[in-house]
């Protein structure tokens, strides 16, 4: 394990259209835009096996949700490397999703599904039995490829009987 002090800083996400993604995170989810930057002429890193950074155009926006979550949105265009032919599903290698803790999953899910750019891809599911009895979750997907999970739970889940460690809660959640 690294010895330096550490804390979560941000999640970075490649998006097909920066303006569309920023609009979604601000309008639908209440994020604030902190920084916009670019365009840059290359992507700033050297992928293993390449001789230099991939040439292309990079624009970025850094957003924040309250005081708890930093999100970096990255739009890569004019790429020289071949693009994948599909968005990875959460179960695919390299696939992922973004999860937001909400205090009313039914209302939050309904609000998002009312948008023309978001669809539900699962019912709201209640976990039954150990270790997460009572936790509620659902998946949604934007038309530009973001898989979004909404989750609702309170302290006191069964896993807490087996460890002193606790999942991090939002500042507004009951202790």
UniProtKB/TrEMBL annotation:
Top-rank taxon, per record: Bacteria
Keyword Plastid: no
InterPro entries: Glyas_Bleomycin-R_OHBP_Dase, MMCE/EMCE_epimerase, VOC_core
GO MF annotations in UniProt: metal ion binding; methylmalonyl-CoA epimerase activity
Keyword Metal-binding: yes
BP term (GO), one: L-methylmalonyl-CoA metabolic process
Pfam families for the chain: Glyoxalase_4
Keywords tagged on the record: Metal-binding
Coiled-coil spans in chain: none
Domain VOC as annotated: residue spans: 7-153
Name used for this protein in its record: VOC domain-containing protein
Originating organism: Mycolicibacterium hodleri
């Amino acid at each position: 394990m690294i010895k330096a002090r550490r804390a979560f800083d941000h999640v970075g996400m490649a998006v097909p259209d920066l303006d569309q993604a920023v609009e979604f995170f601000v309008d639908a989810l209440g994020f604030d835009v902190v920084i916009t930057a670019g365009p840059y002429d290359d992507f700033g890193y050297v992928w293993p096996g390449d001789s230099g950074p991939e040439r292309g155009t990079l624009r970025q926006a850094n957003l924040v949700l309250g005081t708890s979550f930093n999100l970096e949105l990255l739009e890569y265009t004019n790429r020289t490397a071949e693009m994948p032919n599909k968005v990875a599903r959460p179960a695919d290698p390299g696939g992922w999703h973004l999860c937001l803790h909400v205090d009313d999953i039914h209302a939050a899910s309904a609000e998002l599904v009312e948008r023309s750019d978001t669809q539900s891809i699962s019912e709201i599911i209640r976990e039954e039995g150990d270790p997460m009895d009572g936790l509620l979750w659902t998946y949604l997907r934007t038309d530009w490829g973001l898989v979004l999970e909404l989750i609702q739970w309170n302290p006191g889940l069964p896993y807490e009987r087996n460890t002193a460690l606790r999942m991090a809660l939002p500042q507004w959640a009951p202790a």
